[in-house]
């Protein structure tokens, strides 16, 4: 039986990856941060099947300990301060976790079990101000946020340990992937949660930032399969994982509202743009400058050809299904919230 260690197991990807590895018969270990109230995040439903180890990416000793306990054959480094906007507010913490944290994990592996296979959660944010369309493994990087810069360090240190110490270390350059488990500050979940609340009459409108920003959105469940595939290859390498489709935030909003039977009509431009419910004329989307970023990544579009060819990775959940799954899930959650509030 193979042993896997997942950092960031309580997050979106960590939870889907843990499910996948359990299905495949792995002994799954996950690192968790100590909090004043114990919180299993997205893995509460499988907590009895996972071995949890208290550790932190900024504490090398704790990661060495996690390696000693787990004796992991495969290490998936998914832990990160992953919200781009917060990286301007906490640039040092972001660098400690997302950059130096990767070296900590690699050193822990080197100390305890250097033959372990290592996956680093790299990101399309490294392309930032994109230098070509679409982006591939060969596209030059130009990060646009402290998060992107920190992740670029993580990416290169992974490559460097592969070349310096012959470690089986891979980076997945994953484009945006979302799900029913996505944190509510990310734009997709913020939208689907708001759509459910507006539809069910407990919220009037949603305030968003840059509506023209374009992202290549897939589903997390498809993307964790690619992580696993990378660690099963003969040789370690880096791969872009994406859908090769890009859409604006505005299109995401329209698709989500359409699914609950609301047609949006757009009026005005920039910060004055509003989305109107065509049926009753009420404003359901506003733009608020507060949600704009100091430097923006205007467009991301990834070409996953190398992953298709070498990993035989296939995306199973198309864009519309991603949106409808998220909206349906939020409709159920909000309906349940309303039911409980009415019982009080
Ligand atoms: P997420 O939901 O925000 O999960 C992040 C995880 O990291 C959480 O489990 C969090 O634990 C943990 N963490 C944060 N700081 C830590 C620390 N100091 N020590 C230990 N654990 C810590 O993120 P995600 O969407 O699943 O993304 C997974 C990884 O892929 C991240 O590295 C992200 O940067 C990268 N990525 C994501 C995407 C995407 O579109 N989702 C695309 C490309 C790359 P707590 O529960 O304690 O907060
Ligand atoms: N969060 C948020 N909130 N974003 C908004 C809003 C809003 O109200 N309005 C517009 N946006 C725009 C952002 O400016 C950005 O251009 C786009 O929507 C997506 O924002 P996020 O959903 O926060 O994701 P991200 O693209 O910045 O980062 C995610 O994807 C990266 C991969 O490209 C995160 O998951 C990162 O961890 C990941 O590396």
TrEMBL record:
Its EC number is 4.2.1.47. It holds the Pfam family GDP_Man_Dehyd. This is GDP-mannose 4,6-dehydratase. Keywords: Lyase, NADP. NCBIfam families: gmd. The keyword Lyase applies. GO terms for molecular function: GDP-mannose 4,6-dehydratase activity. Belongs to the NAD(P)-dependent epimerase/dehydratase family. GDP-mannose 4,6-dehydratase subfamily. The keyword Lyase applies. Residues 5-326 form the NAD(P)-binding domain. Catalyzes the conversion of GDP-D-mannose to GDP-4-dehydro-6-deoxy-D-mannose. CDD domains: GDP_MD_SDR_e. Its cofactor is NADP(+). It catalyses: GDP-alpha-D-mannose = GDP-4-dehydro-alpha-D-rhamnose + H2O.
